[in-house]
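Entry 0007
Protein: Dienelactone hydrolase domain-containing protein
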Amino acid sequence: MTIDDNPIAAFVPRLVDVDGVSKTVYTAGSGPAVVVMPEMPGISPDVLRLARWIRDAGFTVYLPSLFGVDGAYPTADDGAEVVRRACVSAEFRAFAGGGTSPVTRWLRGLARLAHDECGGPGVGALGLCFTGNFALTMTLEPAVVAPVVNHPSLPLDDPAGLELSEEDAAAIRDRIRRDGLTVLAYRFDNDRWCTGRRFAAYRALLGDAFDGRVLAGDAANPTPPPFFRDVVQTPHSIVTAHFVDQEGHPTRAARDEILAFLGARLHAPATE
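Output (structure tokens):
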């Protein structure tokens, strides 16, 4: 069986304990650490392809299993069931008014561990869809210096919401300003799960530190996997399910921009 047949075989699974909670984390590569969080409904072959690109750009990838079946494309029905379970899980805050998802505390602990193991100026955090905003929340961990927020979909019922408590939002804003961080973010212009109102809310919180980039929806891959075709039903996942691997294509350009962003912040020497 080749990597193409079983793409998760390129990664080493390990059980990581943070504050008494254990989760499987898939790792690969060498160099500074990047925590890649899966999109709904799980660690699909498309998410693994993105993780391999990050690995090949000179990073150690930490890919935690947060929901779904690792390494598979689920059916539309199975994927919808994963969403339903996540929405009622105590780890996530899928709807407005819930504040910050508790799982982000575990993810910040993973970032600390990754920095201890890999060294370098800091850690990258890349969120996708359901986990998109988690990359921003992870900046509450000082080791995280390169947050990438891809098409954040939470809260599901508030297009202008940020899936943050007021206290965490203020702390994130202060940390971003204090350390001069930039938050790189992407969405399609006609994405109904991540609207322009949500990006406007990020900019209101972060000001010029929020680098929100918008791609034309007609650039999206027109034949995504079943969950995205039948459940998501809109251009959404720029560097995974709706990615088009063609020279000069806007989604490939976005992929390359993300890799360059990570490289500029994580491959640079640490300042005194």
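Curator remark: The chain has one domain: 12-267. The mean pLDDT is 95.
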